[in-house]
Design goal:
This protein has 366 residues and is α+β, with helices and mostly antiparallel strands. It folds into two domains: 233 residues, no CATH class; 121 residues, Alpha-Beta Plaits. The chain has 15 helices and four strands. The protein has a four-stranded antiparallel β-sheet, with helices on both faces. Helix 4 packs parallel to helix 11. The radius of gyration is 24 Å and the shape is elongated. The chain starts with a helix and ends with a helix.
């Protein structure tokens, strides 16, 4: 009993607990009320969609953690995923209860991709059951024998309304009114709408008698996920504080492993003005983070060695002009190595050498 009373959920405010209870209950009860007998072909299709979702979650766990870390750092309550590629497809192709089962299994498989800093089981259960409720209602609407031009927009609207509404409701209950207001704009729904468009394509190829083409949704989802991860990096505003060291290291490791060319810059100073100067040069600095030694680290995706060296020279000039004492080092893939650890080692060696060279004039003068 003592273990149950210590669960984090009981530390939530009463309005949050009320919202959690209502949405969770609806997510469990509504699919049961819509149960109808299923055909073997529907079960096979459900297994296909579920397997694709699970494969995706296992394949891009590093990229997905990076994207969620970036989103969680900026707005902890807003971390949409790409599972609508298969869950919304399930709403269009399967009965409500079977579509709900696909969504629940997809959510369970996606749990490991959430960073430890954002893992709250009761909140994840809430968002998962909101998705189950959304897919059930969307499927129920779509199963009505009405023209496609009517049922498809209605199902999509129901999906977005329930998903977005549950998120906004949870935010308001926990007092996150600023984040809730941002959810009233189209921008937070770009990823969801993109993945829903892929799901509509899956529906199209299935109805055209080409079910095997549904497998193409997997590389499409991976491409969408990587595009939005890179976009999150490059949409960081210049005034934002540098990333936490752990966040930067995880993001950098994922990007370096996946990129053909990437540059890393290191700056051996903790001077706050250095971070401001780097942020002002946002034209090349996509991800600025604090490093474990107190300095700064900069990730430059798709940046060839020559361009990375040029940015490093610009930073040295800017630091010197503003009288910020520091050394700047650059390392690039594939020139200096193919792994993040190799690039960090090369940049560390360059920083040490630069520091020693900077001391020599004083030694000679002495």
């Amino acid at each position: 009993m003592k273990a149950v009373s210590s669960w984090p959920v009981w530390r939530e405010r009463y309005p949050v607990l009320t919202v959690l209870a209502i949405v969770d209950l609806l997510g469990l009860v509504v699919p049961a009320l819509t149960w109808v007998p299923v055909r073997k072909a529907d079960v096979d299709l459900a297994l296909l969609l579920t397997s694709l979702s699970i494969t995706y979650s296992l394949f891009v766990i590093g990229w997905e953690k990076a994207r969620r870390l970036l989103l969680f750092e900026r707005a902890p309550a807003m971390t949409p995923d790409v599972l609508a590629v298969w869950c919304f497809a399930a709403a269009l192709l399967l009965s409500p209860a079977l579509a709900a089962a696909v969504t629940a299994l997809a959510a369970i498989a996606d749990w490991p991709s959430h960073p430890a800093s954002s893992k709250r089981l009761h909140r994840y259960t809430y968002s998962s059951l909101a998705s189950v409720l959304a897919v059930t209602v969307a499927s129920w609407i779509f199963q009505h024998h009405l023209p496609l031009v009517e049922t498809l927009p209605a199902a999509a609207a129901a999906w977005l309304f329930i998903q977005g509404g549950a998120t906004i409701l949870g935010m308001c209950a926990s007092g996150q009114f600023a984040d809730a207001r941002r959810m009233l704009h189209p921008q937070p729904y770009r990823l969801e709408i993109t993945t829903m468009a892929v799901a509509v394509g899956e529906y199209g190829v299935y109805r055209a008698g080409l079910p095997l083409l549904i497998w193409l949704s997997l590389p499409a989802a991976v491409a969408i996920q990587r595009h939005f991860t890179t976009m999150e990096l490059r949409s960081r505003k210049p005034g934002m504080a540098p990333m936490d060291s752990e966040v930067w290291l995880h993001v950098a490791r994922v990007i370096v492993d996946a990129s053909d060319t990437v540059s890393i810059l290191r700056i051996d100073t903790a001077d706050p003005q250095a971070a401001e100067l780097v942020a002002m040069m946002q034209g090349g600095c996509d991800a600025i983070g604090r490093y474990s030694d107190g300095g700064l680290a900069i990730l430059l995706p798709d940046c060839p060695p020559a361009q990375g060296d040029a940015i490093a020279r610009r930073l040295r000039v800017a630091m010197g002009y503003h009288k910020v004492p520091c050394n700047v080092a650059a390392a690039a893939k594939p020139r200096d190595g193919r792994e993040l650890n190799s690039l960090l080692a090369v940049s560390e060696a360059e920083l040490v050498l630069s520091g020693e060279l900077a001391k020599r004039p004083d030694d000679l003068h002495a």
